[in-house]
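User: Hi! I'm working on a homework problem where we have to compare a predicted structure to a textbook description. Could you give me the structure for the chain below?
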Amino acid sequence: MPRRVLSSHLLVLADLVLAAAVIAVGIAVVLQTAGGGPLGRTTAATGTKRPVVVSRESSADPVTSSAEPSTPPVPASQGAAIDAYRGLGSWVDIYDDRAWAGPAAAVTDMARHGVRTLYIETANSNSSSALRMPSQLAAFVVAAHSHRMRIVAWYLPDLTHPDLDYSRIEQAIHFTTPDGQRFDSFALDIESHEVSSQSARNSRLSALSARIRDLVGPSYPLGAIIPSPVGLAKAKGGWTTFPYASVARTYDVILPMSYYTYHAHGAGAVYADTAANVRILRSQSGCAQTPIHLIGGISEDSSVIEADAFARAARDSACYGASLYGWTGTSAAQWRRMSYAGW
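Assistant: Happy to help. Predicted structure tokens:
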């Protein structure tokens, strides 16, 4: 082949290689922006970009968003599965005769209203036995799990007899139904003033909490039910030295008894009180990142619009979950308001 013709062909070939390289770069850029890279994910079938969904742990807004999620709350034990405390909850204490008379019916009603977790009291320091009606307790566990709900046992110690409290807590945590089912978590109700000295009360609480954590190990989720941070900040209730930092070190989720029905009336006041409880708690040592399940007002004493204000404030404050106290007094309209708010 003549040299001139060969040179001409080589030039054409070089042009083709350069064009191919330009096309390849263009394709890579298109794939990157269409969802193949860090801007999103692409479905294999359609190539449609999927929006990033911000979880409730990291955002006050439960709807889909393309915004980057904020840092989620960090459980105390770092490895605990705290899902039992997420979303809408409901409460049954040892005095709720209606619920204890028909566990399956009570749980079915909760599930129908979108409840994800039942919080059930197993006993307190003054109970005649370590576990309230074990056969009924087992029925609650079975019914909750049959509806794909979580169930959290809780206990109220007065701290005057620490060994008694520990024994009853141990029995609650180890409680097993005839078919082998157990509670999904345990929460300690921290509110008794039977030990009048605050320093002695804090010391006994710390010791009991340490024993509970040693019992369950580092990966078991523990909840701490605490008094209203607003009330504690006002030095009401006789616990001005409440050990927030110690509680946050031991427990994975904090459940403040905000109970707006005791000191706030009307939607505006309830919203402000609810937000203040979260804000004050978050400002305490060790509590800035601890997940919060907020307990609202006494349901039978709350209006529907107040329940709505509470639910919205809990959502806007990026709480992990929320509930009214308790199941028996919650009306259908209140359930709907909680649901509308995203719980």
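For your comparison, note the following. The chain has two domains: 3-50, 83-340. Residues 1-72 have pLDDT under 50 and may be disordered. Good luck with the assignment!
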